[in-house]
Amino acid sequence: MTRWLVAAGEGGAKLLPGWLRPHRGEQRWAAMAVVVLAIVLQVLLPDKFVLRPRTAAPSLEGAMVLVLAAMNPGRRLDQRHSVLRNLFIALISVLAVTNAVSTGLLVHFILTGGSTTATKILASGASIWITNVIVYALWYWAWDRGGPVERALAADTKPDFLFPQIADPRLDPDWQPTFVDYLYVSFTNATAFSPTDTMPLSRWAKMLMLAQSAISLVTVGLVAARAVNILPGH
């Protein structure tokens, strides 16, 4: 494949930026690594903040990870495979539901004045917050322009997220988004409670970022308030 693909437009031949060109596709390992981290964080949460039975969700998630690893061992994501995609979406969904339950249990525990130490509250809140960052990074990565496979095939030219390199291809003409970019977007959205350098364009992207900011704001606000004894029951 040549460095550039040429498209004819009204102004003559134009050079396509990297994110619009087909490419080899990335591997799934980075995404799977953070999934494993999320599962570990779920296992380490206290009983009062996990979905019962507590081993059900981590066991199901671990089984899905093993199946994905067996069916796609190190191959690049540049070919459509509906079974693998649906299984990965199901994995993210289980992670999301499980962490949503943990968030709800933590909020209920804090608001009802449950008795525990500030250290445990902070540790549990941090675990849930980190898992929330991971879950939304996975959602962004899996859905932007149809997902990593569709991006590798350059099947959809309408981005759901406006990265700086898309807004100005001169920054890096060969740039293509990878999972790390979506992890960064998720982290900054969770810490700033709003987009930073990457703007959501589609309505689903805006709604996901809105939901993530709201969850992060509630989690951080309540955990911090409880830890410094603003709320009763400390």
Structure description:
- With 234 residues, the chain is mostly helical.
- The protein has one domain.
- Helix content is 59%, strand content 5%.
- It contains 8 helices and 4 strands; from the N terminus they run ββαααααβααβα.
- The chain has helices spanning 29-44, 56-71, 82-111, 118-143, 148-153, 164-167, 179-192, 203-227, and strands spanning 6-9, 12-15, 161-162, 199-200.
- The strands form 2 sheets. The protein has a two-stranded antiparallel sheet.
- A hairpin with a 2-residue loop joins strand 1 (6-9) and strand 2 (12-15).
- The longest helix has 30 residues, at 82-111.
- It is globular and about 65 Å long.
- The relative contact order is 0.15.
SSE inventory with pairings:
Elements: E1 6-9, E2 12-15, H1 29-44, H2 56-71, H3 82-111, H4 118-143, H5 148-153, E3 161-162, H6 164-167, H7 179-192, E4 199-200, H8 203-227
Antiparallel strand pairs: 1-2, 3-4
